[in-house]
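= Protein in question =
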Amino acid sequence: MNREIIFRGKSSDNDEWVQGYLHKKRNFIGENYYIDCLKYGHIGKYNTIECVTEMVEPETVGEYTGLNDKNGTKIFEGDILKTQGGYNMGVFWHDEFTGFYLKNEKLDSTHFFGEAVEPCQCEVVGNIHDNKELLDKS
């Protein structure tokens, strides 16, 4: 089974979320993260597409899990999902088990996808960078 490998991050220039292919560049200042993405636009009555490289904030970078929520929205590391039980859970990466899992510290609850939580029954309601307060409203 192949899965689409893409990343998401918040642009350093305009605070907008971008999705695409992640790469890092090291220079004399340090390491910067970039995402190559497609930008859609219009020139007159014509649609345009261009490939651009956006520098992103490193702490906002998250990988696509390969799963979609019940509305077909891609689920990324760092998203907040409302589960079928009505709880809000953050999506994180677990190094030891090399997999994505859901966690809510307030509930002291951790689940791997498919274990007790089916992604197709969840809904993306925000992310831990823009909507951290959603994790406290479970």
Notes: Residues 62-136 form a domain with the SH3 type barrels. fold (CATH 2.30.30.290). The first strand starts at residue 7 and ends at 10. The radius of gyration is 17 Å. The chain has a mean pLDDT of 87.
